[in-house]
UniProtKB/TrEMBL annotation:
Keywords: Membrane, Transmembrane, Transmembrane helix
Similarity-based family: Belongs to the LytR/CpsA/Psr (LCP) family.
Transmembrane segments: 6-28
Coiled coil regions, renumbered to chain: none
Record domain Cell envelope-related transcriptional attenuator: where: 81-224
Protein name stated in the entry: LytR family transcriptional regulator
Keyword GTP-binding recorded: no
Amino acid sequence: MTGRAVVRIVVVLLVLLLVAAVAGYFLVSARLHSVEAMTDYDGRSAETPGEDWLLVGSDSRAGLTAAQRRKLATGKAVGKRTDTMMLLHIPEDGRPTLVSLPRDSYVPIEGHGSGKLNAAYAFGGPKLLTRTVERVTGIRIDHYMEIGFGGFVGIVDAIGGVNICVKQDINDHKAGINLKKGCQDMDGGTALGYVRTRKTGAIPDFDRTQRQREFFSAVVQKAASPGTLLNPFTSVPLALNAADSVAVDPGTGLFDLLSVGLAMRGGPVTTAVPIGSLPTIGGQAVVKWDTQKALRLFEALAADKQVPKDVITK
């Protein structure tokens, strides 16, 4: 075979790969679910440096069969509620910051007085939830992403599971897990139980949000690793699973999702909103933020500056 023939073959292969990549991009983009989450309103915060994402995990069982619900111990609840809420700030330079917003946070909700943060979603869906988060943090949300139980399991399985170090034995039949202390690979079903369980920690829900941040970081870092992205047997199922199970605002596309993974490759700074007290209001246990520390946390993010160490919680 002559050198010219080899060059022709290489050129043809490159063209075919380019065509396949472009076709794949449009195929996956077309399958992304879109949800209206951001609206303009009087008093909305101005745009700030960097990018701010509102990440929402719902308890939606959509797409799961009865057998899968039993296997994953997800229960029979219909509809969906916000099970997890996190604010991700990607700075123009430096490490991202991932902040858990406790779902029981007692905050003002437009048109509904004050109540738990996750009630905003129940009252008005993604739009009211996003507006509520913007008002209480002073940060303008640039992107919204939501995923349900089934989507979470599919994405974890698509990347071949994630290795997580469990701090203590956890036996929780309600979450469908029986884990021993130590580092171990988790598939999607086990991972779902791990991030849902409330069987650990002196204040279970706070320990749960820490595990959620840990797991989200691990999943995104593995998904954005060269070993995943350059392997079509993992990258293609991952892209298709993500497109089918993730809902994003209309202004968010495939490249935006990829940018999150690339930004988090070095590991984000993780924290929760500083807590001031845990009162009972109207017969419900709620979380009140430490107003001064929370203000300093969100002001640092809005200014695209490093978060003060004394407001970072684990």
